[in-house]
């Protein structure tokens, strides 16, 4: 009985985590759609500045988000903002 309960708990936690990730992705996609004024699937620096609450720092923020440095931000780049980066693996003990 304990194995069944443990498995059910693991499945429930996994599903909840998936739902949270999906909700975050959905929120990011909605933000991106609002920024993408011309609806071309990318946010330009001008579009970003137009919606920025802090236009004086918009250039620097945009540069950090534009991972491939092509002058526009894709949904993939936008979704990566604030995402936790995996920690580097610890060196193996000898």
Q: Specify the helix fraction band.
A: 55-70%
Q: What are the low-pLDDT stretches, counting only 5+ consecutive residues below 50? A: 15-23
> What gap, in angstroms, lies between the N and C termini?
40 Å
| Major β-sheet annotation | 2 strands, antiparallel
Average pLDDT confidence is: 79
Structural class by helix and strand composition: mainly alpha
Number of domains: 1
The CATH topology comes to Recoverin, domain 1
Task: Name the overall outline.
Answer: elongated
Main sheet strand line-up:
1-2
Global Rg: 19 Å
Question: Strand percentage, roughly?
Answer: 5-15%
Lay out the secondary structure.
Elements: H1 2-35, E1 42-44, H2 45-51, H3 58-65, E2 72-74, H4 75-80
Antiparallel strand pairs: 1-2
